[in-house]
Amino acid sequence: MEFNITLIPGDGIGPEIVREAVKVLKAVGKKYGHSFNSKEVDMGGCSIDKYGVPLTEEALNTAANSDAVLLGAVGGNVGNSPWYQLPPDKRPEAALLRIRKELGLFANLRPALLYEELAGASPLRKDIADKGFDMLIMRELTGGLYFGKRYTEEVNGKLTAVDTLTYNEDEIRRIAIKAFEAARKRKKHVTGVDKANVLDSSRLWRKVVHEVAADYPDVVCDDMLVDNCAMQIAVNPGFFDVVLTENMFGDILSDEAAAVTGSLGMLPSASLGEGKLGLYEPSHGSAPDIAGKNVANPIATILSAALLLRYSLDLDEEAKAVEEAVKKVLKEGFRTGDIMSEGMKKVSCSEMGDLIYERI
Ligand code: NAD
């Protein structure tokens, strides 16, 4: 089959890590007989330098008209880059908010998988880490507290701040459907996470999640209060498959889930909208401190390409092949600097890409 992919290398280590992911997509194309036509566009600081804005309409149109978008990272050294002298809406990161909004991406997927070989990097107690875990945090991205009306006013002589948390049933239903669909491609278990003992928005969340669950009898569905979920991620992470939750809870829980893996350079992410188009990017930033040195870990971006194959192109077998190739390389003892440990073989960013390419 033939697919059109928009590539956004971005800033810092972005171009290096995206190059390795493209290499891996080439291997997949070769093995399974697909062609991935790619078009590269600028976004972030490099776009500011060329066009004066972090994202041009042309770049946005290219992304909107493709099957999927693969992004490296944007942004520079916040302390001394001239990009950060610009007003907030003209800075590199403004492009991220704009592209997510324009592409209508309301679901953020962040898998947190503990690789057996990297379990030593996890901050979890050894007996917990040894059991392993593989969860997917499905976070609502465009509603809730972060997008509600907010203001600060003086009430009875005291400064008083108000933030509002609103969800309607359609917003909940569409992300719940994404979660159950994702669960069908995984271990068929969705945990709806809310604060239904206190919040009205959470009671509606839970009600709609249960309605959607009725359409997926093959998927186990349970509920958990967010405070308990935060605790369970630390003491029993193996319980979870898909964690379905609203914007702010998801913001916090996805970082916690990332932290317990202990390896930032390994974590992919996907943002999906109503159709198949999605934006795929590593969970880390542009790492300006190591940019251009060919030492970055490309695995988070390579695994983001695997998510792209699975969720935008429906190529499940191909996605699995990429994930298995990553596991194999780790098992054989190859490591980039950020995940290096005693007795392992240290490799560069491009060597890691080559090793994964060869194993597909
Ligand atoms: P960062 O994730 O870029 O880096 C944090 C630390 O982790 C650094 O020491 C870095 O060298 C290391 N690191 C990150 N990714 C790595 C990889 N693949 N391999 C090896 N080491 C890696 O976070 P930061 O330093 O807070 O931010 C740097 C820039 O990235 C900022 O401009 C920030 O705004 C931007 N940022 C962009 C995104 C995005 O594009 N989605 C996300 C987060 C931060």
Rg: 20 Å
CATH fold name of the largest domain: Isopropylmalate Dehydrogenase
The mean pLDDT is 96
Tell me the CATH superfamily of the largest domain.
Isopropylmalate Dehydrogenase
In helices, the fraction of residues equals 25-40%
Distance N terminus to C terminus? 18 Å
Q: Name every ligand kind in the structure.
A: nicotinamide-adenine-dinucleotide
Shape: globular
CATH architecture of the largest domain: 3-Layer(aba) Sandwich
> Per DSSP, what share of the residues sits in E-state strands of 2 or more residues?
15-25%
Largest sheet: 10 strands, mixed
The structural class is alpha/beta
Overall tally of domains = 2
Tell me what the structure shows.
The protein folds into 2 domains: 1-113 and 262-360, 3-Layer(aba) Sandwich (Isopropylmalate Dehydrogenase); 123-261, Isopropylmalate Dehydrogenase. 40% of the residues lie in helices and 21% in strands. It has helices at 14-32, 45-51, 57-64, 94-102, 126-129, 169-184, 200-213, 226-235, 247-261, 299-312, 316-331, 349-359; strands at residues 2-10, 35-40, 68-73, 107-113, 134-140, 150-155, 158-163, 189-194, 220-225, 242-245, 268-272, 278-282, 334-335, 345-346. It has a 10-stranded mixed sheet with strand order 2-1-3-12-11-4-5-10-8-9, sandwiched between helices. Strands 6-7 form a two-stranded antiparallel ribbon. Strand 1, helix 1 and strand 2 form a beta-alpha-beta unit. Helix 11 (316-331) crosses helix 12 (349-359). The longest helix is centred in the first third of the chain and has 19 residues, at 14-32. Nicotinamide-adenine-dinucleotide binds at residues 13, 73-76, 78, 93, 96, 264-265, 281, 284-290, 296-297, 300, 338.
